Target: RnfABCDGE type electron transport complex subunit B
Amino acid sequence: MNTQFSLIQSIDALLPQTQCGLCGHRDGCLPYAKSIAEGEDANKCVPGGQPVADALASLLGRDKLTAEESVWPTQSDGRPQRMKAVIREDECIGCTKCISACPVDAIIGSGKLMHTILTDLCTGCELCIPPCPVDCIDLVEDLQSVPTDIIRIAEQNDLRDRYYSHIQREEKRRVDRKGPVVRAEIDTALFAQFSAQSTAMPDIQVAEKPEPVAVKLDAKTTIELAKIRTQIKKLEKQLSVREDANKRQMLEQLTAQLNALQGASA
Ligand code: SF4
Ligand code: SF4
Ligand code: SF4
Model:
C-alpha cells in the first residue's frame, strides 16, 4: 500500500460519507479526500463542520481553518444539525427519479408507485430534492440524539459501503442504459482504483460496454438497405398523415426485409 493511498484513506475516514458534494466534489467524499492529500484546503466539508476541519488539520499538520458554513444551526457536538428527508407520499407520482439520485440507497419504491425514504439510512444530503418533478420531498430536523464517536464511525463505514454498492449498480445501469441516470455520471474509475487497493473497501469494477460488432456490407447490400430505408421513411410519413391498410402492410414487409438483411450481414 503506498503512502499517498494511506493518506487519502486516513482523510476519507474522517469525512462524514454523506456524499453530498457540498465540498465542491460532485462525486463525494473520496474525491475530496484525494484532493486534500494533493493540497486542497481541508475546511470545505459542510456536514462535517468545525470538528472535521480541525481533525483534518491535525492529521495533516496544517493550520486550523474556519469550516465552511452550513445553512443549519450547530449541534452540541459542533457539527451542523443533522437533517432527514421525508416524502409527502400522497403527492408522489412514482417517477423513481429520487432513487437514482440517493447515494446511499435510502429510498424504496418502484415505477408509478409511491416512494418512501428509509429514515434510519437518510443522511439529509438533499440530493433527492432537485430531481423530484413535483417537489414533494421535505427536509426535517433529525430528532435523534447526537451520536457518539463510535456510533458515528460505524455509520460512516456503513454509508461508504452503501455508496460503493450504489456506484457499482449505477455504473452497470449506465452501461445497460436502463432507468434514469439523474446524477451526473460518477467517476467510477477513481473509486475502482481505490477499492482495488484495500480489502476494507467494497470492490468496484468499471463495467465494460461491449464493442459494437463491425459489420462489413458489400456494395449491393448497402444500396439495397438504403433503398428500403428510404421507402420505409416515405411510408411512415404518409401513414402519420392518414392510415391506409395496404401501406401499413407494405411497411411491415419492408421492415421485416430490412431486419433480415441486416441480420444476415451481421
Ligand atoms: S460529506 Fe463532506 S466531504 Fe463528503 S461529499 Fe459532503 S461535503 Fe464533501
Ligand atoms: S433520501 Fe434524499 S436526503 Fe436522504 S440520503 Fe437519500 S438523497 Fe440524501
Ligand atoms: S422523485 Fe418525487 S415524485 Fe418521483 S418518485 Fe421520488 S418522491 Fe416521488
